[in-house]
DNA sequence: ATGATAGGCAAGTAACCACTTGCTTGTCGA
DNA sequence: TCGACAAGCAAGTGGTTACTTGCCTATCAT
């Protein structure tokens, strides 16, 4: 459906959200507060907790982030699977060899 | 640079622009008017010529569309190379298995 | 229980973006 | 040269969105 791609690309459109994805790529399973502090420490992003929370909601609706709750903690895990949708939609020019296979 | 990715993802954020990319995937080297008529015919998109022109400008600044001028015609060619940037930034889970999740 | 910690909900605001409208430039055929 | 066609430029507008502010809920340690 179009709606899925719509959420996906809209989620990727914001630089802060992309930075969050970077952060989760490096360390998956972070809590909201952990993401907040790392964004401000490592990326010098002065951003409120609520803003990050809203960004995470957008990423989750796009399927790029999955969450699991444990007690009062909520862990956020990265899921890059939806990105495959992009590569399948517009085929890349031949790079050097077949892709999707790590030798 | 961040600015390049910024233009790229912003360009992909709009559904009309993605449809234009689809159209150019199918037939590269179209003029502005050709793209307009095909958008309205094949995709039922009632959109003005200027709107398409602005979309093409965004796509071009993102490097997804390249143009060449011949007389009074300006042809638009698709270039999916910038999309490789996405796959490199967030590595996809292994495609061999049905569901990829690192244990 | 009480205070502290982790997170959620909702409304308001300022900036951004897609689209339109109107006019202008440049190129080709008659 | 004149008219028609392809495209460019610029300002204005309505809707979207990122962010803040303020308050509320839930879980845990003491």
TrEMBL record, chains A, B:
<dbReference type="InterPro" id="IPR011991">
    <property type="entry name" value="ArsR-like_HTH"/>
</dbReference>
<keyword id="KW-0805">Transcription regulation</keyword>
<dbReference type="InterPro" id="IPR036390">
    <property type="entry name" value="WH_DNA-bd_sf"/>
</dbReference>
<keyword id="KW-0804">Transcription</keyword>
<keyword id="KW-0238">DNA-binding</keyword>
<dbReference type="InterPro" id="IPR051081">
    <property type="entry name" value="HTH_MetalResp_TranReg"/>
</dbReference>
<dbReference type="InterPro" id="IPR001845">
    <property type="entry name" value="HTH_ArsR_DNA-bd_dom"/>
</dbReference>
<dbReference type="InterPro" id="IPR036388">
    <property type="entry name" value="WH-like_DNA-bd_sf"/>
</dbReference>
<dbReference type="Pfam" id="PF12840">
    <property type="entry name" value="HTH_20"/>
</dbReference>
<feature type="domain" description="HTH arsR-type">
    <location>
        <begin position="1"/>
        <end position="101"/>
    </location>
</feature>
<protein>
    <submittedName>
        <fullName>Metalloregulator ArsR/SmtB family transcription factor</fullName>
    </submittedName>
</protein>
């Amino acid at each position: 459906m179009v709606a899925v791609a719509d959420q996906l690309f809209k989620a990727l459109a914001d630089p802060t959200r992309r930075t969050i994805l970077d952060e989760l790529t490096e360390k998956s399973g972070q809590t909201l507060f952990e993401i907040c502090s790392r964004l401000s420490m490592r990326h010098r992003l002065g951003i409120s907790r609520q803003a990050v929370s809203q960004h995470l909601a957008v990423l989750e609706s796009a399927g790029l982030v999955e969450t699991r709750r444990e007690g009062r903690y909520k862990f956020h895990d990265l899921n890059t699977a939806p990105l495959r949708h992009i590569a399948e939609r517009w085929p890349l020019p031949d790079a050097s060899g077949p892709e999707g296979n790590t030798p």
